[in-house]
């Protein structure tokens, strides 16, 4: 055999051997493992996603290692899922494998546990874990068939929602603590279960920070809505909204797109721009201060169209700094003498949910009811009822301080606020 033939044969043998030893493809079987220092990462079939260990150092000199999924070949590295976000590996001992009880685990020296899939223990040598082209990491029991997933990362996301995932009340996106620390941060994107519409919200430290109540207003937000509803193959669609017809684009290409709950509280829809080689922010929220829940405090109102920030309603004054826990407004005075009260009649107002609902024949009856409950009643709204078997109109009553006020709101309601007549002569106060 000629020398060149020998070299070729050796090179081919080395390539095959390296492929066998250096790569596991997209599947990991029982008995195989991915280590912190190996090249044996999982790569999805069309090389869109990769799973392996990656380091983060941040401001600390200690290098912390995490098992995660990222977009294969993109720079900078874009991580979409992290397993051991609460407990990084601090040395070189990290191993990812299928344990004897059938769970996915990350272990260190002396079998120290860094993470587990925490499914019911079931000893099986027929389990495999596979990184799908969608970015979903799935654990399968070959005895049950490849379409039955024992566990999948799509049901346990971190801060990123990918096409193909399904958003329901059991799923939440929790932000990273900061750009170099994937531990759970302050912001959570979730479905609001008590809302009959099944709307979504961003929470900050378990308190509502922002409602996603305008997802069908334009094409980009409809793209997000379809993504969350797992309807990413939908074609052209029209909506009637505020006497306008809004059309979505033809089937949107969701390849290399993601919804991110970032550490600053902004929910972002990002799309990879192949020409520019970077992520393009196509949609985000909150768009401005008025989207943030109760940004102006009690009896303070926000207007996104005039950019003046928060202002007190007529008849109200800013809360002195340091009092009543901070911002907002209070009544200048109170009076329940019929001749000294009136109503601020506002239109297209966003406001928090009413405290009571009664049925009256006329708005005058609703108004009289509010006056009779002074000073308990703060405001009323008289609207057509959704209950066909009762009165055609509903009288909504607010007895708590009015919050979440936004004016010139397309989906707003008419709102009448009880005030002292002599207190509304001065202009509203802006801060």
How would you portray this structure in words?
- 9% of the residues lie in helices and 37% in strands.
- It is mainly beta.
- It has 3 domains: 22-155, Orthogonal Prism (Agglutinin, subunit A); 157-287, Agglutinin, subunit A (Orthogonal Prism), CATH 2.90.10; 303-423, Hepatocyte Growth Factor.
- It is elongated, with a radius of gyration of 29 Å.
Question: Summed up, what is this model?
Answer:
The protein has 431 residues and is mostly beta strands. It has helices spanning 3-22, 219-228, 363-372, and strands at 27-29, 33-35, 42-43, 49-56, 64-71, 79-82, 95-98, 104-107, 113-116, 127-131, 137-141, 149-152, 160-161, 172-178, 181-191, 200-204, 207-212, 238-241, 244-247, 257-261, 267-273, 278-285, 300-302, 310-312, 316-318, 329-331, 341-349, 356-359, 379-384, 393-398, 405-406, 413-420. The radius of gyration is 29 Å and the shape is elongated.
Strand content: 35-45%
Rough outline: elongated
Return the CATH class of the largest domain: Mainly Beta
CATH fold label of the largest domain:
Agglutinin, subunit A
Helix and strand content put the structural class at mainly beta
Number of domains: 3
- The CATH level-2 architecture of the largest domain is identified as Orthogonal Prism
Number of helices: 3
């Amino acid at each position: 055999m000629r020398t060149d033939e020998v070299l070729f044969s050796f090179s081919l043998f080395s390539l095959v051997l390296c492929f066998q030893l250096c790569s596991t493809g997209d599947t990991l079987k029982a008995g195989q493992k991915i280590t912190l220092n190996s090249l044996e990462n999982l790569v999805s079939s069309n090389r869109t996603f990769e799973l392996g260990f990656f380091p983060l150092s941040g401001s600390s000199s200690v290098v912390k290692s995490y098992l995660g999924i990222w977009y294969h070949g993109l720079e900078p590295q874009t991580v979409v899922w992290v397993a051991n976000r609460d407990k990084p590996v601090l040395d070189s001992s990290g191993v990812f494998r299928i344990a004897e009880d059938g769970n996915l685990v990350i272990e260190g020296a002396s079998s120290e546990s860094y993470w587990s899939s925490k499914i019911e223990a079931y000893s099986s040598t027929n389990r495999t874990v596979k990184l799908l082209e969608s970015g979903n990491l799935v654990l399968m029991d070959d005895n049950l068939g490849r379409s039955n997933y024992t566990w999948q990362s799509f049901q346990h996301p971190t801060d990123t929602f990918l096409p193909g995932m399904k958003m329901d009340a059991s799923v939440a996106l929790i932000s990273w603590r900061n750009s170099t620390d994937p531990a759970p941060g302050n912001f959570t994107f979730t479905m609001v279960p008590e809302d009959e519409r099944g709307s979504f919200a961003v929470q900050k430290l378990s308190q509502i920070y922002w409602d996603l109540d305008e997802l069908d207003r334009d094409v980009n937000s409809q793209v997000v809505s379809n993504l969350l509803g797992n309807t990413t193959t939908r074609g052209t669609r029209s909506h009637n909204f505020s006497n306008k017809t809004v059309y979505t684009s033809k089937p949107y290409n969701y390849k290399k797109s993601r919804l991110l709950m970032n550490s600053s509280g902004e929910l972002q829809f990002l799309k990879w721009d192949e020409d520019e080689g970077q992520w393009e922010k196509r949609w985000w929220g909150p768009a401005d201060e008025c989207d943030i829940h109760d940004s102006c405090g009690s009896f303070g109102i926000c207007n996104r169209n005039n950019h003046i920030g928060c202002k007190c309603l007529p008849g109200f004054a800013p809360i002195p700094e340091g009092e009543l826990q901070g911002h907002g407004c209070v009544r200048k005075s109170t009076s329940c003498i019929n001749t000294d009260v009136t109503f601020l009649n506002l239109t297209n107002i966003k406001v928090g949910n009413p405290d009571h609902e009664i049925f009256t024949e006329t708005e005058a009856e609703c108004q009289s009811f509010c006056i009779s409950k002074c000073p308990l009643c703060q405001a009323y709204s008289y609207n057509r009822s959704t209950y066909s078997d009762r009165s055609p109109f509903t009288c909504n009553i607010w007895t708590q301080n009015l919050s979440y006020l936004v004016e010139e709101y397309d989906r707003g309601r008419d709102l009448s606020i009880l005030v002292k007549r002599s207190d509304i002569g001065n202009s509203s106060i802006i801060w």
